[in-house]
What does this fold into?
Amino acid sequence: MMHPTRPMTRPERDGVPASPALWQDGWYRYARALASPNFGPRPASAQIDLIVIHSISLPPGEFDNGNVQRLFTNQLDWEAHAYFQGIRGLQVSSHFFITRSGALWQFVGCNDRAWHAGESNYRGRSNCNDDSIGIELEGLEGGTFEALQYETLAGLCAALLQAYPIAHIAGHEHIAAGRKQDPGPGFDWPLLQRSLASPSKCFPAIT
It folds into this structure.
């Protein structure tokens, strides 16, 4: 996807290079953009104050094959693996996806509503898609994640904290308790908290 051309800043017009903006219409400068059709507008009253962390691999436990990107852009070949028959026709998306090597992809602008949370409830509100930003980590539910993924995740979350009124960071398992279990016990919540130097009240109960 090509982003709209941003207007030149005054220093650029005066012949002095300016640093590119970190965000443009909800798209993050350091992510590789691949637009998903699976999104919609947020409610007018939505306050984007929640980050939801997920884990995903397709098929489960297989990495670096491009299938997550294909799923989020409705390009997955349902006949390519028996597992895909169980999710055939699924139309979902997440704002971001972080591969095992730490590469960052973006599928939906953060100002828009991605389809990542499903039926959900957190901090007294339902329909978490309305006011959350979804981040998928390439991994197996309950498994561990790579140091490079945590590095990319911390950098992304820090940028989101600066750009949006983020007050909570939770896992899919916390907003859809009993229905989802990702990212699961292999995710290092204390590491993320230390990396962001955020208070514990921003996170689910950390043990």
